Amino acid sequence: MGLVRSLSSFIVLLSFLIAVNGQGTRVGFYSTTCPSVETIVRSTVTSHFGLDPKIAPGLLRMHFHDCFVQGCDGSVLLSGPNSERTAGANLNLRGFEVIDDAKKQLEVACPGVVSCADILALAARDSVALTKGQSWQVPTGRRDGRVSLATNVNNLPSPSESVANQQRKFAAFRLNTRDLVALVGGHTIGTAACGFFSNRIFNSTGNTADPTMDQTFVPQLQQLCPQNGDGSNRVDLDNGSGNTFDTSFFNNLSRGRGILQSDNVLWTTPATRPIVQEFMTSRVNFNVQFARSMVKMSNIGVKTGVNGEIRRICSAVN
Ligand SMILES: *[C@@H]1O[C@H](CO)[C@@H](O)[C@H](O)[C@H]1NC(C)=O
Ligand SMILES: *[C@@H]1O[C@H](CO)[C@@H](O)[C@H](O)[C@H]1NC(C)=O
Ligand SMILES: CC(=O)N[C@H]1CO[C@H](CO)[C@@H](O)[C@@H]1O
Fold this sequence. Notes:
single chain; mainly alpha; Peroxidase, domain 1; 2 domains; two-stranded antiparallel ribbon; 13 helices; binds 2-acetamido-2-deoxy-beta-D-glucopyranose
């Protein structure tokens, strides 16, 4: 009797721990129901990446924007009036067609089994691997949400956010300062539109830039982002290495070559500078932390078990 009781409280404790840590996702969730899932997602991402390498940062960013709003439930993929996709922060998301393509193939291989939220989580991982970052195992078993509202898109950090504000937004999802610096390190691939940082390179009276920037870098940025332009030109966030998942982003930060104010402050703020220093000198430490932080992030608010649904197409609820 005592044994039964302690066994059952052990099981309760165990399921509590699983709920807190992985919230029910696990590596190999589809191993019997859809064994080809990872192969199909990888080959789809690879073929789109071959046509346009910017799809890699696009998918990584899309996964982040999915997880920070309503949890990693594919809500960012839903289209329609007032959906998350219509919010300002999501207007230039890219890679929807990659997810739709993978979903179409998966519906042939194993109909009604694989969630759009999982496809996005796997595609984000594959995007890192394709740009020469280190791969990791992605726990799966997410189910798709049925709610997507532009008005919920307010947890995302803005390009001018202080470290304290970024820390607060990440802490709301139990992501600590190391997670924050590692995940922002995803900017080692990808670009930003000039409009997101033009205030740093031109002030109201002319060509004066943020004094914390490398002043020899400023004229390059001013040339790529003309003051009379519409702000839509795009600039690599990791100058000189924008298509490779490496540590030069941190290196550039340390030399005043961060593009976004929210990236630059990771170097100028004492709370985050030592972590930037660590990652810029150890690619291994960065890769290990990035993978860990991605697994944490991609478990935010996941719907598992009987919650949510498996969408038939990723842009619409069933
Ligand atoms: C803008 O640049 C001018 C010229 O260098 C400088 O005198 C002025 O203080 C700057 N203004 C602002 C708001 O930074
Ligand atoms: C960054 O690096 C490249 C060299 O790869 C250079 O041509 C480019 O203009 C640089 N500057 C910016 C702001 O991207
Ligand atoms: C502007 C600049 O110097 N950017 C550098 C960023 O880091 C990469 C890799 O270390 C360099 O190749 C770039 O020149």
